[in-house]
Amino acid sequence: MQTESIKSNIVSSLMWKLLERSGTQGIQFIVQIILARLLSPEEFGVIAIVMVFILLANVFVQSGFNTALIQKKNADEVDFSSVLYLSLGVATILYTVIFFCAPFVAKFYNQPVLTNVLRILSITLFIGAVNSIQNAFVAKHMLFKKLFVCSLGAVIISGVIGIVAAYRGMGVWALVAQQLTNQLTVAVLLWSTVKWRPQLVFSIQRVKSLFSYGSKLLASGLIDTLYRELTTLIIGRVYSPSMIGFYNRGQQFPQLIVANINGSIQSVMLPALSACQDDKKRVKEMMRRAIVSSSFLIFPMMIGMAVVSKQLVLIVLTEKWLPAVPFLQISCLTFSLWPIHTANLQAINAMGRSDIFLRLEIIKKTVGLIILGITLPFGVYALALGVAISGIIFTFINAYPNKQLLNYSYKEQLIDIMPSLFISITMGGIVYSLNLFSFNDWQILILQIILGVSIYIGLARTFNLESFNYLVRTIRQLKRKNEYS
Fold first, then answer.
1. Which of 6-15, 63-72, 93-102, 154-163 has the lowest mean pLDDT?
2. Burial, 169: exposed, middle or buried (Cβ in 10 Å; 0-12, 13-18, 19+)?
3. Cystine design at 245: which of 44, 135, 252, 319 (Cβ 3.0–4.6 Å)?
4. What CA–CA distances, in Å, run from 65 to 136, 164, 229, 321, 468?
5. Which residues lie below 8 Å from residue 1, measured CB to CB, with a gap of 6+?
6. What are the boundaries of each domain within the chain?
7. TM spans, by residue (predicted)?
8. What is the dihedral of CA 351, 352, 356, 360, to 10 degrees?
9. Count of CB atoms within 10 A of residue 444's CB?
10. How far apart are CA 308 and CA 306, in angstroms?
11. How far apart are CA 197 and CA 287, in angstroms?
């Protein structure tokens, strides 16, 4: 009964997290489409450059402590309060550094507007420090229903403000207003709905204890963020902010889908796996289920999106964004592997092995930088393709420790994902053939989506895929549960 209760709690939490991610990302996606039609690729590129520095600073502000709070079994009010005050102190130091360095960043990229944009958007460091602790409390106690309400409200309010500002001709400042409002609204709504409040206590001993785990995640996060955003920095310096805009818009569509599914699984997996970290067999079962289920959902979406990419960009973003199509297709390959990365890495974190996590990051980024150096002379599209190739290699690197930790081998993982991958590729090939017919963009896109969904579900039923049957059973169980509740 206890196992069934845990499973029910995990599934319920996952569903609320999926609703939160899909709801907020769906609205955000619509907002971004409207803004992309109103604003130029260069204005999106300016924000992309600024966000690199803010993301890097946020790694230090959060310092891996939020994950450490979730992973620690007996984390209490002293732990949460101490981490909050430390994070706010670090945010103050980093904001001061960014404030005075902003003019040099603007001069380096030959974009004077970067100075004020960077200074104002960096205010989110303080808001992010509070949000990270609130999110850790939410995840620790599986309060994802409350997070759903807060996140949805924030994205609606900030979206309206951003669109109105863009209509009024505020340009890049419309994007600044949207970002600031979103972060601030989430913090205010969480504060009013989640009962956690910081206490006037600070324990250096607790901080040191959490830092022994979180410090490795800090280093890992810094390496990962710097590596991921290095491409943006290079494109902005070597090419132009407009090209960054195309690169980021190309990532937008696949990232929206994967962030919803992968982010939901990641948020629920860590506390769930941490709760049973002493039972390796149980951890392996949960990890395998996450890989099988997420692959079944992600693979067809990414392959299908790559196939319909041109029509999608023309209809949604208009012709001025066509240079984003190759980036979109390459990004579909990159993001399709994210759930497999997440499941392997979250299992390692849940087992308390942040030391292994750090070693993996160093190895992966060394390999990634070598590939980056090789592809850089061949142009911006080769650069993006190199990122995708790195992602494939990283999949094997991330999976390696779990051969020993959980007895989950490469062969087992490949067997788990191959059925979904095979029928996804089959579906993609058939759907692509519709491009040979003389239909307009709307007609082709609608036909491709309908045909793709029908073929994929039909093949899943024909081959009796375990992942398909599991998802059907889970949906039916949730439906019965809601009927009786």
1. 6-15
2. exposed
3. 44
4. 9, 37, 22, 39, 37
5. none
6. 253-485
7. 44-61, 82-105, 117-138, 147-167, 290-308, 328-348, 369-397, 417-437, 444-463
8. 80
9. 19
10. 6
11. 33
